[in-house]
Amino acid sequence: MLLLKNCYYVATFDEKDTELKNVDILIEGNRISKIGKNFNIESNYTVQAIDCSNLVILPGLVNTHHHFFQVLTRNYPPVQNAKLFDWLVNLYKVWKNIDEEAIYYSSLIVLAELLKTGCTLTSDNHYLYPEGITEIFDIQLEAAKKLGIRTALTRGSMTMGESEGGLPPDSICQDTDTVIKDSLRVIEKFHKKEELAMRRVILGPCSPFNVAESTLTESEKLARSYGVRLHTHLAETLDEERYCLERYGVRPLKYMEKLNWLGEDVFYAHGIWFNDEEMKILAETKTGVSHNPSSNMRLGSGIARVKEMLEMGIPVSLAVDGSSSNDTSDMLGEVRTCMLLQRIKYGHDALSARDALKVATRGGAKMLGFDKLGMIKEGFGADLIGINIKDFQYAGSLSDPLAAIVFTGYNHNVDLNIVNGKITVAKGRVVGIDEEELVEKVNEISLNLIKKANA
């Protein structure tokens, strides 16, 4: 049992957007039990009390799109100034050599970075499968289990390599039958339907320009037969739009609509270049968009119409995207970028700090199918974060403690992270790992991969 004592400020993000001062939060097991003051706790319970008198407490942030393995090529010189298609072609030369060790340690450090910056639930889209490596999903979950983070990973895939007009080398692609067979395996082995499941599975063929139509069709059938969600990249760049028009004769969303990829169980990464008609279709079908502002800026892809999407009722969540296109896994920093980027497109009041945080909490939890997360509410899952608002970087901002964590600050690390009722970050440090040792290991793997690619 955890007792968060005298919380300086609590943003619940409940249906009324309730915000509280100087309250306690009692956590029993993996749920929030009580919110208030002076709880009568039976003496036979062991209670761990945490002083939160300096902390702003809010629901854990939810990251709905990532590529963990890309942390190994952060800041890679050949792609620092490249647009998406050129960026991919150059990086495939490095990524094609990843192995099980690279997958495990890249997952571990990304998940740790996400936890340190306020994420409690994350997705991932691992789409490349080098020859001889099959159980990638299992390796990623091993890392997640070690750190205690909640996951809804996608079984990604690419099935259309260079020989079939796609961008990736054939050596990191699979055929549709192999993809569907392993997708079935991971669903039956790992997907949990309970409302506070620690592990869920999503099917995520990568994109229209590296996945065969059969992969998209068979993935859709399998996902809906098991009640799991569907995810892919869509409408990220104008190059993708031209590719779909030339190859399929239609725009990207029309192509996906033809394959039955619309609905509340479908969400797309990026969604920058949807036109007015397509926006209406997304709204009518409640098809979601995972917004990746830093990545979109980094690659010069464009600015998604998030303000309009929210006004139209299109489900929107937030994500950091791959660590080679961001190049961080800074979840709290992404909230700030989300807010500021919409103001560039729509003006000074386009998105407030609270709007951006709501997208990153309630929006993400709902998009990944977790109806009992994304709010601080009695009976909801105990996924919470705490940020020390009395820190140097927030001085002078206490007139609005919640907005302060978005508008101000230069270090987006949280002081406290609780996932499923268990502490995963304490006083800014990830529980259960040697952070410095992990950094050294990842640097070693990264440099070896790059050296091999350049040999």
Automatic annotation (TrEMBL):
CDD domains: ATZ_TRZ_like (cd01298)
The keyword Zinc appears for this protein: yes
Ranges of residues in domain Amidohydrolase-related: 56-423
GO MF terms, alphabetically ordered: deaminase activity; hydrolase activity, acting on carbon-nitrogen (but not peptide) bonds, in cyclic amidines; hydroxydechloroatrazine ethylaminohydrolase activity; metal ion binding
Keywords annotated in UniProt: Hydrolase, Metal-binding, Zinc
EC number: 3.5.4.43
Domain of life: Bacteria
Gene3D superfamilies, A to Z: Metal-dependent hydrolases, Urease, subunit C, domain 1
Entries under Pfam families matching the protein: Amidohydro_1
UniProt protein name: Hydroxyatrazine ethylaminohydrolase
Organism: Thermotomaculum hydrothermale
Lineage, broadest ranks: Bacteria, Pseudomonadati, Acidobacteriota, Holophagae, Thermotomaculales
Gene designation per UniProt: atzB
